[in-house]
Amino acid sequence: MHRAIAERDVAETAMTEDEALDLYREMVRAREFDNRALALQRRGWMSGYPPFRGQEATQVGVAHAMEQSDWLVPTYRSNAAQIARGVPMSDLFAFRKGHAEFQSGHDIPVFPQAVPIATQLPHAVGLGMASRHRDDETAILTLFGDGATSEGDFHEAMNFAGVFDAPVVFCCENNGWAISLPRERQTASETIAGKATAYGFEGVQVDGMDPIAVAECVADALATAHESGPVLIESLTYRLGAHTTSDDPSRYREEDPELPEWRTGDPVERYEAYLREQGLLDDETVTEIREDADATVDAAVEHVDAMADPEPGEVFDHVYERLPAELQRQRSAVQSAGDSTQN
Ligand SMILES: Cc1ncc(C[n+]2csc(CCOP(=O)(O)OP(=O)(O)O)c2C)c(N)n1
Ligand SMILES: [Mg+2]
Fold first, then answer.
1. Buried b (16+ CB within 10 A) or exposed e, 47-86
2. Is 20's pLDDT higher than 50?
3. DSSP H helical ranges for the chain
4. What share of the chain is helix, strand, coil (3-state, %, to 5)?
5. Rounded distance between C-alpha atoms, residue 1 and residue 262, angstroms
6. Is the model's pLDDT at 74 over the cut of 60?
7. Residue minimizing CA distance to atom 21 of ligand 1
8. H or E element: which one contains 170?
9. End-to-end CA distance of the chain
10. Which of 59, 78, 117, 119 to mutate to test the pocket of ligand 1 (most atoms within 8 A of CB)?
11. Measured by CB atoms within 10 angstroms of the end CB, which terminus of the chain is less buried, N or C?
12. What's the rounded mean pLDDT across residues 231-239?
């Protein structure tokens, strides 16, 4: 397993000191976004939100290792990876407020967040096969949860990727839970990484609470993807918060005594302590980074606040070329309900 924190100095890793500090900056920005999103949801600003608290190191490490031209194919919990890839926070807030994704019109190679579990995996493999076919040197990285590995789409995607040598890195964020179902009840496999064996390629585990370890592991996997074909990464992380704002985890878990402390602790605090030990971070820089993150989040929220609310009927756009009759009826009903509210 790739590990760096407490076992290696930054100088012994592939990171420069600036890069190591950048990882921290991105983790803090992600944490500020997550905290604000939760607060906004509680105020009724948006209807629901799936917090990623605990998974910052994995997602930021992933984004750091990717080339600008590589595709990210994310899930609903991948906001930190998207932000670290450069997607404006305002796009992510606007999406949660009901707007179509990517209002800014950015040209970062990122798919929309998939909510139906594992459906993004065949899409990622299709992108990878197209890239291989066209010889365009692009690799694909897709994120998904431990629960997603029980879906048919996961197995079909892994199978196609193995057969066609698709340049895809499958990065499973094993956060220990699929809503209220613990990992042990999800699969009888000893590890999720081990599932790759059945499809003829390599699976590796990484300490998902360590952004340097994740970045190194993903960089290796992307190199393999370019050279020969797919890799499965199992990033051992933890969901510190609720599944979504509609969930109450105290109903099904109090603590996880089975899991080691490094896995259930706060990755932002842990990385901050490491950088301080390394002499790369002091109080002044921490304050500056936090204030900067706070100001970025403020600006994103202000930007979305200034946008007109989306039309309710927009939810029917972009699915069918010609809307079926039943959906036409539903759209009319939604639109006339909207009209009567405005009158
Ligand atoms: C096809 C499908 N089935 C069921 C659901 C309901 N659902 C939403 S999240 C979730 C659990 C997913 O767990 P995991 O893959 O571990 O991801 P995590 O939420 O932990 O990030 C389920 C079953 C869904 N969104 N899509
Ligand atoms: Mg999970």
1. eebbbbbbbbbbbbbbbbbbeeebbbbbbbbbbbbbbbbe
2. yes
3. 17-42, 56-65, 79-85, 89-96, 120-134, 152-163, 183-186, 211-227, 261-264, 267-277, 283-305, 325-342
4. 50, 10, 40
5. 14
6. yes
7. 145
8. strand 168-174
9. 62
10. 117
11. C
12. 98
Q: 254 C-alpha vs ligand 1 centroid, how far in Å?
A: 21
pTM of the predicted model as reported, rounded to 2 decimal places: 0.95
Atom from ligand 1 closest to the CA of residue 243: 19
Contact in structure between 93 and 41 (CB atoms under 8 Å):
no
Give 96-143 pLDDT, tens digit per residue: 999 989 999 999 999 999 999 999 999 999 999 999 999 988 999 999
Tokens of residue 208, six digits: 């998902």
Active site annotation includes 239: yes
CA angle 40, 306, 42 (to 5 degrees): 10
Find the catalytic residue in 239, 263, 270, 271. 239
Give residues with Cβ within 8 angstroms of 244, minimum separation 6.
48, 49, 50, 51
Mutate to test the pocket of ligand 1, among 179, 186, 247 (most ligand atoms within 8 A of CB): 179
pLDDT range class, residue 256, cuts 50, 70, 90: confident
Q: Name residue, tokens 């603590």.
A: 255
